[in-house]
Write a structure and sequence with these properties.
The complex is a heterodimer. By secondary structure, chain A is mainly β. Chain A is built from no helices and eleven strands. Helices cover 0% and strands 52% of the residues of chain B. Chain B starts with a strand and ends with a strand. At the A-B interface, strand 4, strand 5, strand 9 and strand 10 of A face strand 5, strand 6, strand 10 and strand 11 of B.
Chain lengths: 114, 116
C-alpha cells in the first residue's frame, strides 16, 4: 500500500527554471495539500484541494501553481524558481471518513534553488 | 495572528521521565480538531494523537496523552516514560472544520532530545 507518493525526492534548480512536483495518493482521499517546511517555521500551507478539479490558496501561495485534474494526483508547479523557494515540500491527503481525519503525508521533496 | 503557537523551540528530558510539549491555538470556529505529529530525523511525518473540539475527555494513545484545556485554548502533548526513540521534532496542528473547510495549520515545532 503506497499511501502518498511524491516525485522527485530531490531536485536542484537554477534561478528562473521551472519544475513540477507530483503527488499521488492511492487512498481515494478527497482532500490534498502542499506544504513547505523551513527551519523554525514549521509547515506552511501553499495550496490545497477539496476535490477533483478544485484548488484553493493557502498561507504562502505566491510563486506556485497547482492542478488537480485527477482525484489521485495533485501537482505543484514552480514557473520561475527563486532561491527563496529552497525548501522541503510535503504533500498530504485526508479523508473525512476516518474518525480523526488526520493528514497522511508523503516522504517529502527537497528542492534547492541556486 | 498565528493559529498555532509552540513556544518551546527545543527541550531536553531524561530517559524514562515524562515531558510536556506546549501548544496553544487560536480559532473562532466552533468545530475543530487538534493533532500532534512527530518528525524523526529521517524526515517523515508520523501522526500521534487527535482531539476533537467537542470531545469531553482528553485523548490518549499509549504513552501519549493530550491535555486539552478548551477555555485556555491549549492542547499540550504529554509523553510519559520517555524513550531515546522519542527524540524528534513535534508539531501541533489544528484543522478548522466549519469556517476554513478542512484546512490544517501547523505550529513551528518543538525539538525534543531525550538524554540517556
Amino acid at each position: 500500500n503506497a499511501g502518498v507518493t511524491q516525485t522527485p525526492k530531490f531536485r536542484v534548480l537554477k534561478t528562473g527554471q521551472s519544475m513540477t512536483l507530483l503527488c499521488a495518493q492511492d487512498m481515494n482521499h478527497e482532500y490534498m495539500y502542499w506544504y513547505r517546511q523551513d527551519p523554525g517555521m514549521g509547515l506552511r500551507l501553499i495550496h490545497y484541494s477539496v476535490g477533483e478539479g478544485t484548488t484553493a490558496k493557502g498561507e504562502v501561495p505566491d510563486g506556485y501553481n497547482v492542478s488537480r485534474l485527477k482525484k489521485q494526483n495533485f501537482l505543484l508547479g514552480l514557473e520561475s524558481a527563486a532561491p527563496s523557494q529552497t525548501s522541503v515540500y510535503f504533500c498530504a491527503s485526508s479523508y473525512e471518513g476516518t474518525p480523526t481525519g488526520e493528514l497522511f503525508f508523503g516522504e517529502g521533496s527537497r528542492l534547492t534553488v541556486l | 495572528a498565528q493559529k498555532i503557537t509552540q513556544t518551546q523551540p527545543g527541550m531536553f528530558v531524561q530517559e524514562k521521565e515524562a515531558v510536556t510539549l506546549d501548544c496553544t491555538y487560536d480559532t473562532s470556529d466552533p468545530s475543530y480538531g487538534l493533532f500532534w505529529y512527530k518528525q524523526p530525523s529521517s524526515g517523515e511525518m508520523i501522526f500521534l494523537i487527535y482531539q476533537g473540539s467537542y470531545d469531553q475527555q482528553n485523548a490518549t494513545e499509549g504513552r501519549y496523552s493530550l491535555n486539552f484545556q478548551k477555555a485556555r485554548k491549549s492542547a499540550n502533548l504529554v509523553i510519559s516514560a520517555s524513550q531515546l526513540g522519542d527524540s524528534a521534532m513535534y508539531f501541533c496542528a489544528m484543522r478548522e472544520a466549519l469556517y476554513n473547510f478542512n484546512k490544517f495549520y501547523f505550529g513551528s515545532g518543538t525539538k525534543l532530545n531525550v538524554k540517556p
